[in-house]
Amino acid sequence: MKPLKIGMIGFGTVGGGVAKILLGEAERITRRAGRPIELRRVAVRDLNKARDIDLPPGVLTDRIADIVDDPEIELAVQLMGGTDPAREVMLSLLSAGKDVVTANKALLCEHGAELFAHARELGRSIAFEASVAGGIPIIANVCCALAGNQITSLSAILNGTSNFILTEMADKEESYGDVLRRAQELGYAEADPAMDVDGTDAAQKLVILTLLAFGTAVSLSQFPCTGIDSLELDDLKCADELGYVVKLLAVARLHDGKLELHVSPTLVRKHLPLADVQGAFNAVKVTGDAVGETWFSGQGAGQLPTASAVLADIIDMAVGRAQLTFKTLVLPGEGAEYEVQPIDDIVSKFYLRFNALDRPHVLADITDILGRNGISIASVVQHESPEVQNGKEPPVPVFIMTHRTTEGKMRAAEAELNRLDSLHSPCVRMSVAE
Amino acid sequence: MKPLKIGMIGFGTVGGGVAKILLGEAERITRRAGRPIELRRVAVRDLNKARDIDLPPGVLTDRIADIVDDPEIELAVQLMGGTDPAREVMLSLLSAGKDVVTANKALLCEHGAELFAHARELGRSIAFEASVAGGIPIIANVCCALAGNQITSLSAILNGTSNFILTEMADKEESYGDVLRRAQELGYAEADPAMDVDGTDAAQKLVILTLLAFGTAVSLSQFPCTGIDSLELDDLKCADELGYVVKLLAVARLHDGKLELHVSPTLVRKHLPLADVQGAFNAVKVTGDAVGETWFSGQGAGQLPTASAVLADIIDMAVGRAQLTFKTLVLPGEGAEYEVQPIDDIVSKFYLRFNALDRPHVLADITDILGRNGISIASVVQHESPEVQNGKEPPVPVFIMTHRTTEGKMRAAEAELNRLDSLHSPCVRMSVAE
Question: pTM of the predicted model, to two decimals?
Answer without folding.
Answer: 0.95
